[in-house]
Amino acid sequence: MTQELTSPSPAPQAPGTGRGPGWWRDAVIYQVYVRSFADSDGDGIGDLRGARERLPYLKDLGVDAVWLTPFYASPQADGGYDVADYRAVDPLFGTLQDADELIRAAHDLGLRVIVDIVPNHTSDRHPWFQDPELARQRYLFRPGKGESGELPPNDWESVFGGPAWTRTDRGDWYLHLFAPEQPDLNWDNPEVHAEFEAIMRFWLDLGVDGFRVDVAHGMIKAPGLPDIGHGAQAQLIGAQMLPFFDQDGVHAIHRAWRRLLDGYGDARGKQVIGVAEAWAPTAERLALYVRPDELHQAFNFQFLNAPWQSDALRSVIDASLAATASVGAPTTWVLSNHDVVRHTTRLGGSLARARAATLLMLALPGSAYLYQGEELGLPEVTDLPDEVRQDPAFFRGGRATGAVGPGTDTESAPDGAAAGGQDGFRDGCRVPLPWSGELPPYGFGPGGSWLPQPADWGGLTVAAQTGDPASTLELYRAALELRRRLPGLGDGPMSWAPAPDGVLAFTRPGLLCTVNTLGHDVGLPAPGTPLLSSAPVTVDDATAQLPGDSCTWWAI
Ligand code: GLC
To answer: Are 450 and 45 in contact (CB under 8 A)?
Structure first.
């Protein structure tokens, strides 16, 4: 008999949800990039009210929590990662009351809410930086080199390009690992520690369930701020030790925050978490951020950067699981975010690979983050005109923060398809979401959209994909529904199973996952009954045909 599967078959109902202790250990968390998610007031910029109105969509998608990118008062020199007031909502995005209502509405739907905290730097419009006396104590000012201090204090480069130092009109220099509008804080000053703990309490009191810690590897710099000795530093981030990233001293900060989070949660009978955005050179160094007394999660960028090859994927999965297991933490998988080329495009311009990669990710033990729009299979927009671009890296000649390492899989791009984004900058993954209709702004809001949406996104809208079993949106919905229902998914054991070259196979309790990374069909003895597949899989008598670039979940 031939069985063809394009949509999910009914899965056995399992008792309970399979959650271990700690909701975050296997949560699926959806990243809302607020300015591009949904616009309620027609200014073309997404806002908190728009996000609140769309929460039922996220509930229906099947995620456990939402991470909101910064919506705080900010001059927007870096999409809100330049914060001028950590306790105020920028009028672009709404009011504090809107934030409060959003958090309550999410909780009413059973969704947790994580917000960003940006501790490495503030905006140069922050009152601390505006006051020369305070600034000198709370930021990293140094005299310049050269006869009259006309040269920067060291050779560090900004992640966005150019020197990491800017000279003030008083003649001294301040450090900014990112844009000049983002001066780095001085974490040797206890007032900085106290302020960030107070900011966390402010948002915890509003009900948030955790923090995504921006540049969690950056707050502490090597003593003496030593020269590095060569250029192109941005490309070394995450690949080797640098005196401004992943210094051991950052861990004391994370330990203090864990005490705060645990204390706060214990007092209220809830678990509030921290997730590290940390670019560390190895899985072992990354695991240090999730030791039992540090943060709960750390994005696994090594997995994100892995090429679409079975050996490479297997070794990054093994290294990640071993490293996190050694500290008793789950692994936190991610394929896309607002800093990197969307994975449909990054994996060789192939939606088939992107769908397969997602099912692979969701079958692995641990937690997973989804980036808005990946559930629609959105590609990177690679033809934005220069005049609409806003990524500060574009204006400084640098690269995206996240676009480091071997992330752009040009070598294995099928048919020579363009694999990268637009010169490695980050606007192309931030184009506002298409919700409905045939024309821009596709229901994003009553006005336009701050970045132009492609004319051919009518077939990719939420409305167009809903109810179509072959759509990427329905694939995500089915996968998340199975993940909730099957106790073998989420946290727990996995082991590799034998598989032909180019194919990965692994078991979870009651399940087997196959991933065919080759561009053509592979036949193998049917390992069980197909539950869900990223592409139509056929089972003929006892032989399964795995389509090229596909992932299938099997009940065993
Ligand atoms: C993180 C953010 C990125 C931002 C940078 C500086 O990498 O994800 O968007 O530009 O930090 O805050």
So the answer is: yes
What is the rounded (10 degree) CA torsion for 476, 289, 494, 516?
50
If you write DSSP's letter for every residue of 314-338 in order, what string do you get?
A: HHHHHHHHHHHHTTT---EEES--T
Which two tokens mark 304?
A: 């994100």
- What one-letter code names the amino acid at 533? S
173-175 sheet: strands from edge to edge: 141-142, 173-175, 165-167
Q: How far apart are the first and last CA of the chain?
A: 19
Nearest to 165 by CA among 190, 139, 126: 139
pLDDT band at 399 (very low <50, low <70, confident <90, very high): low
- Ligand 1 centroid from CA 230, angstroms: 23
Q: How far apart are the C-alpha atoms of 421 and 368, rounded to whole Å?
A: 23
User: Where are any strands of DSSP class E within 25-73?
Assistant: 28-32, 65-68, 72-73
C-alpha 364 – ligand 1 centre gap (Å): 27
Query: Which uninterrupted H or E stretch holds 524?
Result: strand 522-525
Instruction: Render pLDDT for 72-81 as a digit per residue (tens, 0 to 9).
Output: 999 999 999 9
Nearest Cα neighbor of 379 from 449, 310, 453 is 453
Distance CA 28, CA 513 (A): 18
Tokens of 189: 């000053």
Q: How far is the CA of 37 from the centre of ligand 1 (A)?
A: 18
Active site residue 262: no
Return the closest-CA partner of residue 277 out of 216, 235, 330.
216
Of 60, 61, 59, 65, nearest to 26 by C-alpha is: 65
CA-to-CA distance for 485 and 419, rounded, in angstroms? 35
* Residues paired with 513 in a beta bridge: 506, 553
- Per the annotation, the verdict on 214 as an active-site residue is yes
Token pair of 129 as six digits: 């930086």
Beta bridge partners of 139: 185
What is the maximal distance between C-alpha atoms in the chain?
84
Q: For ligand 1, atom 7, name the residue with the nearest CA.
A: 401
Give the tens place of pLDDT for each residue, 55-67. 999 999 999 999 9
Which protein residue has the closest C-alpha to ligand 1 atom 9?
339
Is a pLDDT exceeding 50 seen at residue 544?
yes
What is the residue type of 469?
P
Kindly name the residue from 39, 157, 214, 474 that is annotated as catalytic.
214
d(CA 376, CA 372): 8
Note whether 473 and 375 are within 8 A (CB).
yes
Ligand 1 pocket residues where CB is under 6 Å: 78, 81, 118, 178, 214-215, 277, 338-339, 401
Residue 20 in this model has a pLDDT that exceeds 90: no
365: tokens are 């033990």
Is pTM beyond 0.85? Reply is: yes
